[in-house]
Design brief:
This protein is an alpha/beta fold. The chain has two domains: about 260 residues, 3-Layer(aba) Sandwich (Rossmann fold); about 180 residues, Glycogen Phosphorylase B (Rossmann fold), CATH 3.40.50.2000. Helix content is about 35%, strand content about 20%. The protein has a nine-stranded mixed beta sheet with strand order 3-4-5-2-1-6-7-10-11, sandwiched between helices. Helix 1 crosses helix 17, helix 4 crosses helix 6 and helix 10 packs across helix 15. The longest helix has 17 residues. It is globular. Alpha-D-glucopyranose binds next to helix 1.
Length: about 475
Amino acid sequence: MEILHVSAECYPMAKAGGLGDVLGALPKYQERAGHIAKVVVPMYRTRYLYKKEWELVHEGHQQLGSYSFPYSVIRERSRELGFDLYLVDVNELLDRPNIYGYDDDPQRFLAFQVCVLDWVNSWKHRPDIIHVHDHHTGLIPFFMKYAHAFRDRLHDIPSVFTIHNAQYQGWLGWQHREWLPPHDEWKSGLLEWADQINPLAAAIKSAWVVTTVSPSYLDELRHQANGLEKLFEYEKGKCRGILNGIDAEVWDPQSDPLLIKNYSKEDPFLGKLANKESLCRQFGLDASKPLLTYIGRLVHEKAADLLPEAFYQCLHHYQARVSILLLGSGDPRLQSTFQEMAHRHKGLFGAYIGYYEELSHRIYAGADFLLMPSRVEPCGLNQFYAMRYGTLPLVRNTGGLRDTVVDMGDLNGFGIRFDQASVGDIVYSVGRALDLYEQDPGHMQSMQRHMMGFDHSWDRSAVEYLELYQSIR
Ligand code: ADP
Ligand code: GLC
């Protein structure tokens, strides 16, 4: 089977979060299972672009309304990722240093989508599946069926839409309808939700099947989906929850080149300690205390706004019992709050504000506990990385976190789960973690070894996707 993944991110070319990780790994595992998996993303000006050699595979011309532009498609020559990675280059629109965050993002991703379809339309053969991810590529299933330029050759290729995050939907006012390629106007209702063009809703309505990145998240979307609850209820028949996996080669404490010291699940403690000591030296923290960390985007859905007060209370209540280290970027106000805290609570709290892939690996390895108090967590990959590196997850009981972490008070448990995204629940859970660390190190170590033995690689979920594709072909 030949699968074409279309996405805004793909690690290591472009990653802002877990979407990039998924697109950098799932296709590799699909290839290993004997299929052809290709990935196409916009050509941003990232470091990876300049490090690799590329070959031109296609040139074409497209337009958004009256704005007409040339585009090209290039392919990474060495195939080092284990699959073919293609980039769509649209001068001025896509070739920018960042993935998101520009006022014209709607035009950028619209241009990307029409170029991808125009390119696929030019292939001599056709892919067996077009698999699109999140709202940035959500108009593709609709265009494949109803855009005049594409429908003849593409309408009967099965499309799969995976929702990594339904909070962001790509809304676009109807006044911009002229940007869309000519299509069957009488089908325009499929593009709409709440009087706007809504690419996420359009994909849910138009794709052959829809998946979410964990089963629990799918259940939750029927009650909490940023306005799309009724749509999820209505379309539940074509929706499936398939849990994400991880790239167990990139994320392996035994071979990870980014660690200070590698370690195995059989004997992890000296290696973890070496990484912890180096981190604590770097951030001026005391390595003899348990190290609690947060890694992630500083946004409302991750409940990052609760962290300043929660950390302050932890430092206050638990006095000298814990060191805290945060790695993140996002809300500028939170960023400066954490910077100030690092200054004010020197020796107790450290922060790196920004995106730093290498440091994240060292923190997963060196920390004792990883906190994820998310209000919404479609799957979450951090908890998988933490488990693989022997770091106990403290997670809110939601979405993919509910599906992957078992509280240590339950049968075969290995982490800490709490119900509310609240300062109180976070502080209480940190208290449980510190008691465990201080009073029952034997139990803690056996849970660490237990978690490190889990196989959360893509092997299992890649097969689930393949079975899903087969079922709709
Ligand atoms: P989301 O995609 O919602 O941000 P996930 O848990 O699925 O959440 O994935 C987050 C990914 O981004 C992980 O690989 C995590 O290590 C990484 N990450 C998040 N913030 C940072 C950061 N500031 N520096 C380095 N890596 C980060
Ligand atoms: C999204 C979600 C996250 C998920 C990731 C990869 O960014 O917020 O929970 O793990 O996508 O699917």
